[in-house]
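User: I'm putting together notes for a lab meeting next week and I want to include a structural view of one of the chains we've been expressing. I don't have a solved structure, so I'd like a prediction I can at least talk through. The sequence is below, exactly as it appears in our construct file.
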Amino acid sequence: MSDCACCPAPVAFRVPPALYEVAPAETAAICPRCLAVGAADTGVAEPADHPAFDRVADVFPTDYGGVALALLLGKLPSLAVEKPAVRTLRDHAEQAGVDVTLTLERLSEIDDVEPGFPLDRKVVQMEQLL
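Assistant: Thanks for the context. Below is the predicted structure for the 130-residue chain, given as structure tokens.
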């Protein structure tokens, strides 16, 4: 993930086929600090089947729900433009048992997490738009 200067070791993860159309690549990565999401660089270690989302935060879900939430975080900075993708990703995360709003609110309260966008405001906007 070359667009994140603050993280030399992003959390890489495989994107399930059901989410390919809303993902930056079949293998994506999230920065544990700024929450930037992008295609995983070729230099990033091969992602595990169960991504190490606990490196982002203890409140971050694991497995399929975590993948959907990570991809949603990548779309939030452009919420108005990415509204259909955000809706799809939110639905997938919720179907996997993730309370999306609560998890995003908890992420916004963690001192070590410094998103490059106003996460708390995006959560409110997401709730209003969807």
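A couple of points you could mention at the meeting. The radius of gyration is 13 Å. Strands lie at 11-14, 27-30, 37-39.

User: Perfect, that's what I needed.
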